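F.,

This is the one I mentioned.
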């Protein structure tokens, strides 16, 4: 079981006409991490790339010390060689919404009190541009939930909060 934490700061600026500033805000909303999964064939762990992007943050409640968030969690890992053709045939075009690979990261947000919507998951498979023998599987999960977070209210109402989200890959 591996865990990552994402720290978020609320940005009230809404002028997206300033493209460099908008790009900087988008970069600040996405964080990338690396995890390892046990390899089924080669005896060494495979790298799993994980990126989390905050889409929307709202309803920061001081009394309940909670907030609501919509987040997209992107994953990418190398497909086992014996599953390459199956993955490409079933998930290669990205249009088969019901396709799921044999293995995919099970994502859990540990400080969630309620999921507001069902998880929307999709997967696709593609050959590596440099090495035709390598197939990558990519996934995206959209999660909307309420998160508990202990607030530091010493300077209330002039305080700033660091909101954290603890994402676990459980398999």
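My design for it:
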């Amino acid at each position: 079981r591996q865990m990552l934490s994402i720290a978020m700061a609320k940005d009230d600026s809404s002028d997206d006409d300033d493209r460099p500033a908008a790009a900087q805000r988008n970069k600040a909303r996405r964080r990338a991490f690396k995890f390892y999964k046990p390899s089924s064939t080669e005896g060494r762990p495979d790298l799993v790339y994980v990126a989390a992007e905050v889409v929307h943050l709202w309803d920061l409640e001081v009394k309940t010390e909670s907030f609501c968030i919509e987040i997209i969690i992107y994953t990418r890992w190398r497909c086992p060689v014996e599953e390459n053709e199956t993955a490409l045939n079933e998930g290669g075009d990205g249009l088969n919404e019901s396709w799921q690979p044999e293995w995919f990261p099970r994502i859990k947000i540990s400080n969630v009190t309620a999921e507001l919507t069902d998880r929307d998951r999709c997967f696709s498979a593609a050959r590596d541009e440099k090495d035709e023998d390598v197939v990558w599987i990519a996934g995206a999960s959209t999660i909307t939930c309420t998160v508990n977070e202990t607030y530091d209210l010493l300077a209330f109402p002039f305080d700033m909060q660091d909101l954290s989200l603890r994402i676990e890959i459980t398999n």
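Residues 1-17, 19-29 have pLDDT under 50 and may be disordered.

Talk soon.
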